[in-house]
Amino acid sequence: MTYLTNDLLAQVEAIARDAGAAIMAIYGREFSIDEKADKSPLTEADAAAHQLIAERLSALPLQLPILSEEDTDGFAGADPQGRYWLVDPLDGTKEFIKRNGEFTVNIALIEQGKSVLGVVYAPALAVAYVAAAGIGAFKIDSEGRRQAIRVAEHVPGDTWRIVGSRSHAGDSLQQLLDKLGAHELVAMGSSLKLCLVAEGAADAYPRLGPTSLWDTAAAHCVVEQAGGTVVRLDGLPLNYADTRQVLNPFFLVLGKNELDWPALLA
Hints:
The protein is α+β, with helices and mostly antiparallel strands and about 270 residues long. Helix content is about 30%, strand content about 25%.
C-alpha cells in the first residue's frame, strides 16, 4: 500500500476540515431539517458537507469510487483493487440538531474490506483524529498540537471506563454493564466514541445497536492503528467489503484487556 502516504493523509484531513467549516457556517444559524425514508434526520449541513467532500476527493490524484451516506445510489462499486472512499459527511446529525458539538466528519479509505486510512474531524470541538496503515494514529487538538495516540491497557480490578451512545442507549448495554461490575459510563455522540478508546480515554465501547458502514470506518482505522480492535460479537473484525449490506452487525471497540467479551454477552 505504497499509495498510503503522510501527504495523502494530510490532503484528506484538509478536506475534512473544510467540510467541517461548511458545517459550522450552517450550525451558527437557523437551518432546515428534513426526514429520510428511514425516519432519520437530514439537514442542509449534511448536503453541503457531502458536496464539498465528493468534489475534493474526486480531484485527488488517487481516483477512487466514493460511497457517501448522502449518495448511495451514485456508488458503482469498489475499484479492481477493492478500494473506495467511504464517507459520512456529518456523523451525529441528532447531536448537530441538539447543538451539543458531538458530531464529526468521517472519511475512510477502504481496501479489500479493511479501513486503511481514516480521518475523523469534530468541527465544533476543532479536534481531529487521523490514521493510516503503516503511518500510525494521531490526535490533533484544538490548538493544533499533534500527538501519537495508543489505546489503554485495562488493569484487572480497576473500574472499567465504558463509552455509550448518547442517542442510542438501550437495555442490552445496561445488561452488559450489570455483568461487567465496577464501571463508569461516558455518554458520547458520533464516531467520537471509537476515538475515545483509540486515545486511551476509555477501555471499551460495546455497540449493541444499529450503525452503518460509514459511521464506523474512519474511526475504525484510528482504533486499529492505535493498537485496539473493532470486532463483531463473534470475534471477527468488522469488515467493509460487502457494500450491498450497509448496516453493521453489533460490535465491540476494545483497547488492551483480557476479558472474554463474547462470554459476557452470551
